[in-house]
Amino acid sequence: MKSFIANTINSTFSSINSNKQLFLLSVATNFIAFFVLGLFSLLFVNLNTLFSNWDKHVQLIVYLDDKISIANKKKIELLFEANDKIESVIFIPRDQAWKSFQSEFSTRSKFVTSLKFNPLPDSYTIRFASGSDRLKNIRDFSEKIKSYKGVESIEYGEKWISRFEQFMIFLRGFIIAFGIVLFSGMILIISNTIKLSIYARKDEIDLMSLLGATHRFIKAPLLLEGVLQGVAGALLSLIGIKLIHLYIVFRFQGSLESVFRGVDFQFLTNPIIYSIVSTGSIIGILGSLLSANQFLNTRNLE
Q1: Contact (Cβ atoms closer than 8 angstroms) between residue 145 and residue 154
Q2: How would you class 110 by CB atoms within 10 Å of its CB: exposed for 0-12, middle for 13-18, buried for 19 or more?
Q3: Over its length of 302 residues, how does the chain's per-residue pLDDT go in tens digits?
Q4: How many Å separate Cα 239 from the centre of its chain?
Q5: Are 157 and 59 contacting, i.e. CB atoms less than 8 angstroms apart?
Q6: β-sheet bridge partners, residue 126
Q7: Pick from 64, 60, 63, 84: nearest CA to 72
Q8: Residue 237: its pLDDT value, please?
Q9: Strands, E, within the chain: which ranges?
Q10: How many CA atoms lie within 13 A of 116 on its CB side?
């Protein structure tokens, strides 16, 4: 077993040394592919973090009809009390809301100060408890309460949240589709590189076959060479992405803090890092097997 491992390692590095340019070209191509895919993943991770951070600050605002009866108002308040997902409810009278609005916007617009009536209704600002299903709870409750008598309208930023979610779904699908295309392309690149290595060692492999070497013995160095190409490209891409991440954090620290509200600009998550490295290994194995099996099957037919 030890001699098998030693022979595999020696043969692999001997082949790499004999075809340095091909090996480096394959590693560079894999690096570029993983680097581009990793940048999209970095964008996805941080947009998802940003959305999660915004989600924590989303509140449901229930605007009441000016002619709401005391009985209907009491029913709405009982509905708040019955929902254990609600963390707090603040009632804001229309006079208080109008004073706050005027103090904030009177210096920016003369139209606000010229109004002789209060156009704002009474409202409730409802904060839901934190949790992974917080946004779902807000949606479900808003659907339930909007049909109650005395409720004029509800607001929690539904339109922009929906658009952002649709964009995240699109981005996730794009990354998966892009990854599949790159996955197929990198397999072919490694396969062609290994194929050239095989033909460079064709006489040696033929001699090994005549001496009784098994296909496993012949394939092992080729598989290891393919894995090294895939993993090297993946690891280099992670280093490149980390440098980009550090540059963005260093260069735009102040802007990031205001946008992310105290949440750090994230690097790739551990599952994504492991996926990139393992994908590099799988690509290397599949590419090597494709070339090795084609060559050995051809030699058997001869």
Answers
A1: yes
A2: exposed
A3: 566 677 677 777 777 777 778 888 888 888 988 999 899 999 888 888 877 777 677 788 888 888 888 888 888 888 888 888 888 888 888 778 777 766 666 555 555 555 566 667 888 888 888 777 777 888 888 888 888 888 888 887 777 777 877 888 888 888 888 888 888 888 888 887 777 777 766 666 666 666 666 667 667 777 888 888 889 999 999 999 999 999 988 887 767 666 666 667 888 889 999 999 999 899 888 888 888 777 667 655 44
A4: 18
A5: no
A6: 60, 89
A7: 64
A8: 94
A9: 60-64, 86-92, 123-128, 151-155
A10: 0
Closest CA to 138 of 221, 55, 49: 55
Structure tokens at 292: 């090795």
Distance CA 262, CA 54 (A): 12
Tokens of 39: 């940048």
The three-class DSSP label of residue 83 is coil
Token pair, residue 289, equals 């097997």
| C-alpha to C-alpha distances, 292 to 28, 196, 212, 231, nearest whole angstrom | 22, 11, 17, 19
Q: What is d(CA 178, CA 263) in angstroms, rounded to the nearest whole number?
A: 29
- Rounded (to 5) percent helix, strand, coil in the chain: 75, 10, 20
C-alpha–C-alpha distance, residues 205 and 201, integer Å = 6
Give per-residue burial for 154-169: e unless 16+ CB within 10 Å, then b.
Answer: bebeeeebeebeeeee
- Name the residue among 63, 83, 59 with its Cα closest to residue 124: 63
At a CB cut-off of 8 Å and minimum separation 6, what does 290 contact?
A: 187, 191
**Four-CA torsion 264, 270, 272, 276, nearest 10 degrees:** 130
Do residues 61 and 146 touch, judged by C-beta distance below 8 A? no
Mention every residue, 6+ apart, whose C-beta is less than 8 A from residue 176. none
